[in-house]
Amino acid sequence: KVEKIRIKITSLGLTESRITADETIQQLFVECRLNSFLAEETPLSLPKPTGGQRIHYNYSTVINVDKEDNHAEREYLKSILLKPDLPADSLKFTVVSDPPEDEQDLECEDIGFAYVSLKEIFQKQRDIIEQDIDVFDSQDANTVIGKLTVTVEALNALRSVHEECKND
Fold it and tell me: Quick one: a GO biological-process term for this protein (predicted)?
């Protein structure tokens, strides 16, 4: 039984915003986080895309959620399915500005957030395949600054966890 969540970060496009206008923001990478215990990031930061263009990361990662070795991840997935009011039921994607090498005094800065609800994948019984999700401005959660194309294959793992919940 395949007990994995597969995540792919395909590409990123930006709409006109303070991000595209900001010349200190030049290179971007994307971090993907599952709750508090797992964070992965694209190994490359790529030059900020200009009007209408997209930058392509084509980065894939796998989160193992088998019972034997990944108990914490599995318990977290259980809590998503069993506690309907759990706020942190999403994979969180963060678009991060990577300072240029000659500006090492600048910090990496989170510029936008995007979310994929694992609970929703389970409720709809449908994985997310190459889907555009909104990236919201880190300084204003109501403003969309771009689109991130992602794949999140979690349904089989969630089904397996759900079966286990029924048997517990």
Answer: retinal rod cell development
